[in-house]
Amino acid sequence: MKKRVIQAIFFIPFYSCILFIDVLIPVFNLFILAVSLVIVWEILHMADIDRYGDRRTIITTMIFMVFAYIVTVCGKNLFTNLDFSPLYTITKYEYRYMQFAMWLSILLITLLFIVNIFEKNTNFQNHSRAIFTALFAFTYAGICFWHFPLLRTAPMGKYNILIIHLCAWLADTGGYIIGSKFGKHKLLHTPSPNKSVEGFFGMFIFSIPAVLGIHYLATTGKLTFMLGEQIPNYSLTTMIILTIIFTMTGFLGDMAESLIKRAYNKKDSGSLFPGHGGVFDIFDSVILTMPIAYYIFILLTY
After folding, report:
1. Is 196 left (phi over 0), alpha (psi -120 to 50) or beta?
2. Nearest-angstrom CA–CA distance, 113 and 193
3. Is pTM, for the whole model, over 0.85?
4. DSSP conformational letter for 191
């Protein structure tokens, strides 16, 4: 717990700055790309792809991730005089570049087949496992997670991002605290054996009051310095429903990562953050929430 607190003291201020200060948007974009690359590496490493000597799949996937991220964030501007400006500026919410996602996935599949099929002494079982793992990692840690910068540049993006993080991380903290103190009934049929019913409801005990409190402060102008003047005027019922949805998707993301770790017999996704584990362990509850929140907020905005 001491290590977690020390890491949080350094991480939270840095993360908050790149998230809410507009002039740091280049750092934010590079940070999101770095996080997605590390998570993809952690997934491939947990699956022992690197130990099978399948470096072609790893290198191809990593290089393609960088290309795909630039295309996803820049969109059609990339093909107009090589305009990379969306990477460096806050732009209007007039583009939805996830339309490239399907084509990017098809292109990656083609590239992975090419680099694996024409290799001598091919172990088809290992290469097939590597290809499907890489595709999953690209879709989950790439396409899903890259809704983050798109949501950040949307109207009321700072507010929406803050709500998502409260639902994801504060709910996880609440589930841990309530579960460790009062957890007596195991939450059945989950890949995480330490989860309890009490901890499950503890997530909502923490997330709902926190989100409602932040919403009140934002709508009364107390957080204008951080979130700007674009604050949604959602009703109390809407805020509670959104909090429940995002808390549940955060929980499902956490369970998804636990399922992956159990499949590969790993305790943590990595060891970059002692006490926490890997980068995947930190952002697991955020990854799945981002695309779901992105399209929910589109429906609420338009």
Report:
1. beta
2. 37
3. yes
4. S
